UniProtKB/TrEMBL annotation:
Gene3D superfamilies: Enolase-like C-terminal domain (3.20.20.120), Enolase-like, N-terminal domain (3.30.390.10)
Coiled coil: none
Name listed for the protein in its UniProt record: Dipeptide epimerase
Family assignment from sequence similarity: Belongs to the mandelate racemase/muconate lactonizing enzyme family.
Record bears the keyword Manganese: no
Entry keywords, A to Z: Metal-binding
Pfam families named in the record: MR_MLE_C (PF13378), MR_MLE_N (PF02746)
Chain ranges of the Mandelate racemase/muconate lactonizing enzyme C-terminal domain: 137-234
The species this protein was found in: Kribbella alba
InterPro entries named among the record's database cross-references: DgoD-like, Enolase-like_C_sf, Enolase-like_N, Enolase_C-like, Mandelate_racemase_C, Mandelate_racemase_N_dom
Length: 363
């Protein structure tokens, strides 16, 4: 197993509460088996600077720990991975890449798409969301028009600390598109107190937004539970939930109507599916979030999404669409604001060696 850090450009600069991003810096994990199969995984992490160091971790520690296992010893492989990783949430994204690579190789061996190893497709298509960069209401409407014209039916308004601008943007989108465009709002932890958040959320109620994402800090579960009880709008958590343990805490605290699930943050496709199963058992909704991923990570999110028992909320299974280029060729099918089930064996992506060589980060 080896990991290669790479950097690919985004189509345009994305402004969010996390800052301005113009490229993604991730790692590609290549797993080789004795009979010549290759499995691919992606280390996607939005926080810059960690992608490369996580590749070192895979090359020096995680890779050697999994040599010699049978490809179908998934549980033992992942136990060895977690035992070898240093403590810290960011290393979950390296574990996720191993999970993807193992499942990809298993699918190729069996001639089956990864979703068929997870129960098969539970849906015919997944409704997508595209995120609008933080901008003036007029610029947001113009960007939303571009998405609507290319078929998308739901956009996500990324909010900063300026609540008046967030409300004005949602109002402008509502006036322009009405029910022809679904609108989600992602506050990305922009509010300090639950009362501050409630003031903004109440102003959004009349526009019928589909969900209000992460208004408060990740650990303010009491505040999130308060909000959930004081607004009709669904409260979604994102930063509050990385892995299944976080999901359990959120569910026990009554802190969310919807959990936004990431393959990378969960530690892989299988732990992400566990979150979806936990949510369904507790009548909590789920969506899939995005870093945004490039080809391998987007495919992993797609296989996860189709295998989920109930993915009713529009999801960000479209990371590749934000990127101007990629290190792999993927045959994901996007049409009319939806993504359709992948049919090729494994994750259904193949390395483009020339692009990988061009985009690899050399240190
Ligand atoms: Mg979010």
């Amino acid at each position: 197993m080896r990991a290669i850090p790479y950097r690919v450009p985004l189509r345009s600069t994305m402004n969010s509460a996390l800052g301005a991003m113009s490229q993604s810096e991730y790692g590609l994990v290549r797993l080789e088996t004795d009979d010549g199969l290759e499995g691919l995984g992606e280390i996607s992490l939005i926080w810059h600077g960690d992608g490369a160091s996580l590749c070192d971790l895979v090359n020096e520690v995680v890779g050697p720990a999994v040599v010699g296992f049978d490809l179908f010893d998934y549980s033992r492989i992942m136990a060895a991975v977690h035992a070898s990783l240093k403590f810290g949430r960011h290393s979950l994204t390296a574990a996720a890449a191993v999970d993807m690579a193992v499942l990809d190789a298993q699918g190729k061996y069996l001639g089956q798409p990864v979703m068929n190893l997870l129960g098969g497709a539970a849906a015919d298509r997944i409704l997508l969301t595209m995120s609008l960069s933080i901008a003036s209401p007029e610029e947001a409407v113009a960007e939303a028009h571009r998405y609507r014209e290319s078929g998308f039916r739901v956009v996500k308004v990324k909010a900063g600390r300026d609540h008046d601008r967030t409300v004005a943007t949602v109002k402008a989108l509502n006036a322009e598109f009405g029910s022809d465009l679904g609108v989600r709002v992602d506050l990305n932890m922009a509010c300090v107190t639950a009362k501050e958040a409630l003031g903004t959320i109440r102003r959004l109620e009349e526009f019928g937004v589909l969900s209000v994402e992460q208004p408060l800090a990740p650990d303010d579960l009491a505040g999130l539970a308060f909000l959930r009880q004081h607004t009709v709008l669904p409260i979604m958590v994102d930063e509050s939930v990385w892995g299944p343990v976080d999901a359990r805490e959120v569910i026990l605290a009554g802190a969310a109507d919807i959990i936004n699930i990431y393959v990378a943050e969960s530690g892989g496709i299988r732990p992400a599916k566990l979150i979806a199963d936990l949510a369904e058992l507790n009548h909590i909704g789920v969506a899939i979030g995005s870093m945004p991923e490039t080809g391998v990570g987007t495919a992993a999110a797609a296989h996860l999404g189709f295998s989920m028992p109930k993915l009713e909320h529009p999801s960000d299974v479209a990371g590749v669409l934000y990127h101007a280029d990629d290190v792999v060729v993927s045959n994901l099918v996007f049409d009319g604001g939806y993504i359709y089930p992948p049919t090729a064996p494994g994750l259904g992506v193949a390395i483009d060696e020339e692009k990988l060589s061009a985009f690899a980060i050399r240190r």
